[in-house]
Task: inverse folding
């Protein structure tokens, strides 16, 4: 596989662009001028995907300031519901947070929306969550639905409940 193909499959993470994320992070949040330089460089070498989340502090706001964000395939994540039973009100809150994410990003749609908390998928009445994500897909607000997992062994269980378009695994090159 050529290095060009590998780069096109890479997704640039943005957690440090809005929070003091990372075990070895000693500098805190990345300043916007650095974010802009990183995005310009990433695009110049063929990186086309960006990973973000509402839970990453001001990451979505910082991305929304970037003049050419529409050149990238932006993937964001749902808020965490973390209840044993998902209620319609929880999904309404999730949808409102997603709309807020779009506003922060200055986008009308995103490439992908991932369920951030795997346990939300295993909660009772998680069908409300999946129905809402599928509705967003039908409305062309998202192109792909996925899941962010920390335990790869959960993937078989997840695939019994949904067929994700995207699976984010804990991996760092």
Result:
């Amino acid at each position: 596989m050529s290095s060009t193909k590998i780069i096109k499959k890479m997704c640039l993470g943005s957690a440090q662009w809005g929070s003091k994320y990372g075990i070895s992070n000693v500098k805190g949040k990345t300043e916007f001028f650095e974010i802009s330089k990183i995005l310009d460089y990433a695009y110049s070498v063929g990186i086309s995907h960006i990973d973000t989340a509402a839970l990453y502090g001001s990451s979505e706001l910082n991305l929304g300031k970037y003049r050419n964000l529409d050149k990238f395939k932006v993937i964001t994540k749902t808020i965490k519901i973390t209840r044993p039973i998902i209620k319609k009100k929880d999904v309404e809150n999730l949808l409102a947070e997603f709309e807020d994410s779009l506003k922060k990003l200055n986008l009308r749609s995103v490439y992908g929306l991932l369920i951030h908390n795997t346990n939300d998928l295993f909660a009772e009445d998680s069908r409300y969550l999946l129905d809402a994500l599928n509705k967003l897909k039908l409305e062309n607000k998202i192109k792909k639905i996925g899941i962010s997992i920390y335990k790869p062994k959960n993937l078989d269980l997840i695939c019994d409940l949904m067929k994700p378009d995207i699976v984010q695994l804990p991996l760092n090159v």
